[in-house]
Amino acid sequence: MTKSFLFATWAGGGAVPPVLSIARALRERGHTVRVLADASLRDEVVAGGLEHVPWTTAPQGDASDPAKDVIKDFEARTPLGAFARLRDRIVCGPAIDYARDTLAELRARPADVLVAEHMLLGVFTGGEAAGIPLVSLVTTIYPLPTPGAPPPGLGLRPGRGAVGRLRDRALGRMMAKPWAKGLKALNAARTAHGLVPVESVIDAFERVDRVLVLSPRALDYPSREFPAQLRHVGARLDDPAWAGELELPEGDAPLVLVGLSSSYMNQRARLERIAEALGTLPVRGLLTTGPAVDPATVRAPGNVTVVARAPHSLALRHAAVTVTHAGHGTAVKSLAAGVPLVCVPLGRDQPEVARHVELAGAGVTVSKNASAEAIAQAVDRVLNEPSYRREAGRLAGEIAAEAATDQAVAELEALTSGHRQRTVGFS
Fold this sequence. Notes:
Largest sheet: 7 strands, parallel
Number of strands: 13
Helix content: 25-40%
CATH architecture of the largest domain: 3-Layer(aba) Sandwich
Oligomer: single chain
Mean pLDDT: 92
């Protein structure tokens, strides 16, 4: 039976393609799907055969243009400063605007299920006021503190024994504190829509019927416990609509695929440093700048081809190594193809993704300020030590098994039966 789904996302760079991938899969199964999104995402939404509904009062941005980026986290001097921008400009600050737009759309055209990117708490506020099932899509490794794992973002190994568990609990409470500054704005949105206030922002993330994590379970800690409504449903490996065609560099030397963020993170100089590093190695480089950087501005040696875009899923069939900022999309596509990584995290969730890649034995991490020589050494190491490709191949098998059925679509269709199961706690 055909059902109606309302999706919501924002101009968050690599978070957009996996959200739209699920929306397209539902449309292909005959469901009605529309997408609330920034005007800058219209072409990408429409390219998937989906209906685009622009925000009316919520923030409108373009992650590829630094002048139009809503968060501008590239201006932050510290990770905490970058976090505050996300909290105040997307998650909590404009929650009342996201809620207003979402509820207006649902009143104009009701939907059976509301599906939104994890950080859009204002959207879930509007959906909760409408009384329909809510689904949160997490497009990276689950980013909130849970039992059985160190708090995300600190790069720590899981604690051992009672002392280690005590450490993780204490750090988890400490890391939850920066969210407190967003609580007033979030609760203002809730009370304006007739909802009871929440005690913490973290609580609000759990007020959904399902949390679908679009990340391989095998990439996370085996000991980690998750909220009862959370499901790992496998990564989405689709390339963005703007990826274009693949043209490989000539020759038969090992191919190194390079891709930093698709959104602006002040990355041009780092792209040049990576290109310089590859110029000292017997490899072919395919360097994709993405929409945020003009390829003509990136200097590169003769063995490195610089292009604005390329379909990474196709290029990875030929690649020996990926050099990446460790954005979740690029990292998981590489692992799904059995390609090991050199991670150069720039910020956001990238240090956490890089840490998990290292712990899995499928790559190494170098600092975003690393010299060309250090980057070259890391690429050479991953190219010539078989263990990295072996472990990447192991993860490829687990990712393929997890994606054998479309678990995300199955979960969403199950919720349209009208049976709601909003549970709280850990399983």
